[in-house]
Amino acid sequence: MRALIIHAEEFWFKVREKAVAGAEELTTLPGEASLSNALVVFVTVEPGDPSGGKAFLEEVANDIADIYNRVNADVAVIYPYAHLSKKLAPPHEAVEVLKGLEEALRGRGVNVVRTPFGWYKAFRIKCLGHPLSELSRE
Questions:
Q1: What is the DSSP letter of 138?
Q2: CATH code of the domain in which 111 resides
Q3: How far apart are CA 123 and CA 83, in angstroms?
Q4: At what angle do helices 91-106 and 53-71 cross, to 10 degrees?
Q5: How many CA atoms lie within 13 A of 129 on its CB side?
Q6: pLDDT tens digits, 36-83
Q7: pTM (two decimals)
Q8: How far is CA 97 from the centre of its chain?
Q9: At a CB cut-off of 8 Å and minimum separation 6, what does 92 contact?
Q10: Cys-Cys crosslink for 78: which of 48, 94, 108, 114, Cβ 3.0 to 4.6 Å?
Q11: How many independent structural domains does the chain possess?
Q12: Which structural domain, as residue segments, surrounds residue 32?
């Protein structure tokens, strides 16, 4: 898994069109949102990530929750983002990992918004520009 983490004063996204077969349905996920004081986590799920199981997700969630608390964010956004690696997990595996990460973060008291997997999305981000406002993880 790779992640680009941005602490944003403002973050907006809007779903545009399906990008891959196996895209999530929009029935339970937001198609558009405008958020303030958001920790935006752009996530690429790679092959092998699902085999890490719960322990892997717990480790990732602990790291994100720690950053969330340190920057005093109001919401964490899990944003599927295929552009951080050339090696991508199959869509159904990626969705399961992202759902597991969402659940693990909620279990730590983090307010979470997860954007839908497999869609082209427009987004606008305004980074806060402090020492913890731009991070990456592998």
A1: -
A2: 3.50.80.10
A3: 15
A4: 50
A5: 1
A6: 999 999 999 999 988 778 889 999 999 999 999 999 999 999 999 999
A7: 0.94
A8: 11
A9: 22
A10: 114
A11: 1
A12: 2-137
